[in-house]
Amino acid sequence: MIAIPARLVTFAAKHIPKEPTVKSLDPKLQPILNTVLHRNAGESEFHQAACEVLESLSRVIAVNPHYSEEALIERICEPERQIIFRVPWIDDNNQVQINRGFRVQFNSALGPYKGGIRFHPSVNVGIIKFLGFEQTFKNALTGMPIGGGKGGSDFDPKGRSDREIMRFCQSFMIELHRHIGEYVDVPAGDIGVGAREIGYMFGMYKRLNNRFEAGVLTGKGMSYGGSRARKEATGYGTAFFVRSMMERQGTGIDGRRCVVSGSGNVAIYAMEKIQSFGGKIIACSDSAGYIVDEAGIDLDLVKRIKEAERGRISHYVEVKGGDSHYVAGGSVWDVPCDIALPCATQNELGGDDAKTLIKNGVVAVAEGANMPCTPEAIHHFRAAGVMFAPGKAANAGGVATSALEMQQNASRDSWTFAKTESRLEEIMAGIHDACHETAEEYGAPGDYVLGANIAGFVRVADGMLAMGVI
Known about the structure:
Strand order of the largest sheet: 9-8-7-6-10-11-12
Number of helices: 17
Helix content: 40-55%
Structural class: alpha/beta
CATH topology of the largest domain: Rossmann fold
């Protein structure tokens, strides 16, 4: 019998959602949802994502019934292709290890499949499918010519040497290279996959294909075709979206208390940009616990610990001292704040967390991670009138900048940081406005969840209709 690590048992108990429940759904959509639940049995994250989108589409079908013809919605809910493969590799003890690799190519109506690769023990086909489904609409919202996909493996990079990670990435690419290409499918990084891993995979892809196809992967290093501001893009984009959301309400970020979950790329650069807007970051976390520093988080210290040393966030208190303190386990959402940015992983912020945030006066929540808030949490935020930005809108800055990297690769160009950030800011403002205006158009002003789902759906659906039944 294989022993399951205690930390994975804890992760599963906290992050795997219950089967979704739908209080009201258009009669035309209920059979579609039933089919999704039946055909994808046990894939709770995918059920959750599909449920949320289908709930929003009732208003679209009522106004534009042609979107329910030609099995359009059924086709959107079914991936175009799902690839599962074995990844054998040799660890530093000369032992053969076996992991499972995935790539779900969900929808290519608007362009080549585009979406990250995630290395984490929790990865399974249901999680990759949910991420690919969300990615389809997220990518559509950017206005860039990219479809939706996602990939990954249950490989855990934590505690592995650089050589082990290199051997795993090379083995992973030996199979994946058959299914990707700059005009077919363009992966990027995600949880557990940064510039190091992208470099190992790109090197193997180059060797296997005997050509320098720079546009096949994004998130590359600057020395071989990467884009400036890509590392910062998802976090910066989330902050840009929050700023637009609050400005629309006649307020701003300056002087606001902000709490961020996570301490990876997304969290770090969301904090950086929020600080530049005058916000005060008072807490952040990692998988073991969270830190609170009422004087304001020292971001340079967080970067040193998490980026240079690859250490635990608890080390912050040991170095900083003062009034800062560390809480092992627990919930970072217990810390009172005006702005909450969940930037760690899916379903990390539950109903009780949402109630606590609302009780403590939160005014805005933006998802820096993919689907980090449970349906119950989202319900509480919307019911309480809290400004809520879903991940498919608020964290689209990463994939938008990946598309800009593809653009630079295609033209053999390299933009300055300022130019790339400026384009990112424009794209995020456009996403915000599309969500806001769509929500108003469909009778739900201020509902960014409905606005994002409908705006993304309409762009994908129109692309599919233009190509006929395929």
